[in-house]
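In the design runs reported in the main text, the only information available to the sequence generator was the tokenized backbone. The following block is the verbatim input for one such run; it is reproduced so that readers can re-run the procedure and compare outputs position by position.
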């Protein structure tokens, strides 16, 4: 039979585990929407610190940092500047939820909310996994051997520092363009078959032309753009900072190369039948 001391220890351990268990909420939104990331701190408590983080970005800054009765934007990750605010600036009844504005596909990930009450250490209150669906999607159906334009327009009006075209099932990029003058095909399948529709990318036109398409080109293509934050040229560009602008799925009709093949077969069979007819009759 379990002694009273062991029983007390087990109860305390179970209570601690239950107190520290935080379920992860899942939210799905469309890109361009605003989303509220919920976090409910202790009601009536003196909250002195609120930290919203995304673990994969924490080394580069917070999603939001509230301390000393104000928000510290200089400690915030650059991608969240001007887009995150407390739902209730007064945090009445312990409401430490935040509103993330104009969500993009790059905001996908897990967000964690830590709250510290005066005299205590920070405690994890809630975890939210955010899924983002991109609304700008297009499907194109082409014939093998054709040239096709994969259209992508960036209407934000800034200088384009980086352009990436990716295909979801390929590890290497289809096409990369840095500062508009260093463009290359990354994946060998697309060598010498992809070029910018407008080499100067005027008015944010970052569309590309894929030449002589083939069945193996079937797939979903994504257009990513990073705008320059300053006019100063930098030696390195962080590919992770590029934002998804447009998605295109490329499909093929039954005609094209397949139709030509069966056409040739029919012609050959016709000639054979004609020759046999002449021989017999």
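Verbatim output:
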């Amino acid at each position: 039979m379990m002694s009273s001391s062991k029983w007390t220890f087990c109860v305390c351990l179970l209570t601690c585990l239950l107190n520290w268990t935080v379920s992860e909420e899942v939210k799905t939104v469309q890109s361009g929407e605003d989303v509220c990331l919920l976090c409910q701190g202790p009601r009536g408590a003196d909250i002195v610190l609120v930290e919203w983080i995304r673990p994969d970005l924490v080394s580069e800054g917070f999603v939001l940092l509230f301390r000393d009765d104000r928000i510290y934007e200089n400690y915030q990750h650059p991608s969240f500047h001007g887009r995150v605010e407390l739902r209730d600036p007064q945090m009445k009844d312990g409401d430490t939820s935040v509103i993330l504005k104009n969500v993009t596909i790059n905001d996908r990930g897990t967000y964690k909310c830590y709250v510290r009450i005066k005299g205590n250490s920070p405690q994890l209150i809630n975890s939210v996994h955010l899924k983002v669906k991109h609304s700008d999607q297009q499907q194109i159906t082409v014939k093998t051997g054709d040239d096709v334009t994969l259209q992508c327009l960036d209407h934000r009006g800034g200088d384009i520092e980086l352009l990436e075209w990716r295909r979801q099932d390929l590890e290497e990029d289809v096409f990369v363009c840095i500062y508009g003058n260093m463009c290359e095909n990354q994946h060998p399948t697309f060598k010498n078959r992809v070029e910018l529709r407008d080499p100067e990318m005027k008015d944010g036109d970052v569309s590309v032309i894929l030449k002589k398409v083939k069945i193996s080109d079937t797939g979903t293509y994504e257009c990513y753009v990073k705008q320059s934050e300053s006019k100063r040229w930098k030696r390195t560009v962080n590919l992770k900072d590029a934002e998804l602008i447009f998605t295109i799925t490329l499909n093929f009709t039954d005609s094209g190369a397949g139709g030509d093949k069966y056409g040739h077969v029919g012609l050959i069979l016709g000639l054979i039948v004609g020759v046999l007819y002449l021989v017999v009759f």
